[in-house]
Amino acid sequence: MGWIKTTFHKTGSPRWFFTGARSWVVGLYVFGALLIVVGSTWGLGFVPPERLQGNSVRILFIHAPAAHLAEAIYVAIAIAGFVFLVWRMKMADMLIQAAAPIGFVVTVLALATGIIWGIPTWGTGWVWDARTVSTLLLAFLFFGLVALRQAIGREDRASRAVALLALVGVINIPIIKYSVEWFTTLHQPPSIVIGEKPAIAPVFLVPLAVNVLGFYCFVAGVVIAALRARIVEREAGTQWLRDWISKS
Amino acid sequence: MEHDLLVAENIRCTVGDRVLFDELSFSARAGDLVEIRGPNGSGKSTLLRCLVGLHEPDAGDVRRPVDGLYVGHRSGICGRMTPIENLRWLAGITDSNADDGSIEGALGRVGLDDARHDVCDSLSAGQQRRVSLARLLVSAAPLWILDEPLTALDDDGRDLVGNLLARHRAIGGAAVCATHQTLPTAPEVTRTVTLGS
Amino acid sequence: MRLFFAQFRRDLLVAVRSRSDAANPLAFFVLASVLLGLGAGAALAPGIIWVLALFANVLAVEGVFRRDHDDGTLEQLLIHAQPLFPAVMGKLAAHWALSGLPVAVLSPVAAVMLTGTTTGVWVLMLTLCIGTPALTLLGAIGSALTVATGRGGLLVAILVLPFYVPVLIFGASASTAAMLGDPVAFQLLALAALLAASVTAAPFAVGKALAISQEY
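Structure tokens for the assembled complex are given below, as produced in the milestone run.
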């Protein structure tokens, strides 16, 4: 069990993370980009058009990974919030700070592609569908994390407040999702059900899986890069950072 | 060690990159008056808030086996209530069993007999300060943590603080006090902690 | 319980002394109803009354800790109230009694004004009585998080409105169903469940947020 503790302490050290994570960023960028190119080319060029939706279904290969990732980022932020509140690990806070705006952008991407997809399939860009509404609310939760940090200003105090908000948010997400789902199944016009749950054929599934993995890797790279930027910002005065800069 | 009313051990506080104090240790026993000195921004208030539990130090331990009363920069007095109502509320949230009689007695001792039924918004800054000081008399907490207790007080008020401190120490209490001024005390200050040096 | 009542009594007293503060949420609710009636005409859905109550709630709860923070009674409360839970509950109960409750009581009048029918107004009132305390508890988290910034307002609204969504959905849905004569038991139970969850969990989050706000 010793290695778990060691890893925990090392990851908690900005210095260890900063110097060690550089190669990870490059690796994740390259691997993620490669997967996205493969998955998207496959999905856009070689998958047959869907029976009901035609070619418009291809936006699925961007939309689904983004929607999936958005929630994963929020959960990651909430876990970091818990770690920060309990152990006061500075890196956890920096992770929240780095990931919140990225999560917002990914959520907006999911919403935008959803709207673009909705216009030809549902005949309208916006429906009061369970997933649409909860994704929109998720965007506001990300926005709130960024806004609260900016409003408090003082870094040390903002960190704990934001971590707590992230935790409260993650408890609320399932409740919000459930209630929105209940609401929409009650009110949804039946025509939308076609787009609601497309049974995904295997021809779609493989390139989709490739793209999901690609998105995860690429965005993980972006988050780590942003995290390194936060480290530079916060550890600006420290000796190890100066040494590192003068060496490279 | 069992007589320590307050022990601060190796505590450290930072604001951003700036270290306010580090490895700071001191203790207070019955009868002690610990004085915290230092220029503006040296962390006196932050230290006191650590001692009373409002602020968690970045490192180190604060042990406070007894109840502590805190008089800070903010009065802790609601302007929409009268002095009596304020003290009643405080007695309600602390474990004090002060009744109205002892509350009125406390207000009398700080010189607020005439003002005890006026809402605190209509009192002067010095009078409001006296209401804060009356809190010290209503509770039996053996530890006082005072942040600039002389602010806004006249000469008479300074003497009052001196008397309160002297009596409190005589009956086995202790006080930690941050101040820029010379404390009007009969028994000398037990210990002086200087910050920002 | 002693802590609860000490805080409850005090906050009622303070609110009554500052009458206009206490009356603001209700005044806002009535005024907004009148404006809606003027702007959108009658025959609106009862859901709109829920939205108005929700806005009145967020506007009121936004400042629930502000005065206490400014005069330092909040830090005294954090130091002395052991445990903090009942004191926070007492404070929020007093706040709700003067913001959410009057709105709920007056809602049938607004409903008749805006929807033009008396069917289901009692259900509307009941949903508001169950729903608005849950809103107050959730909103207090946002209020506590921002109390030391000196600027709540819109920020609190942005932080907590997403959390208000489930309450709004079940509250508005029950009110609409009642007006149409449909069964409402499920929505009422869901609202009660949300209230129970808020009562048990929110005060802890509020207490933690208040403690964070008082750090230097």
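Chain A touches chain B at residues 155-156, 237 (CB under 8 Å). Residues 87 and 186 of chain A are 44 Å apart (CA to CA). Further analysis is deferred to the final report.
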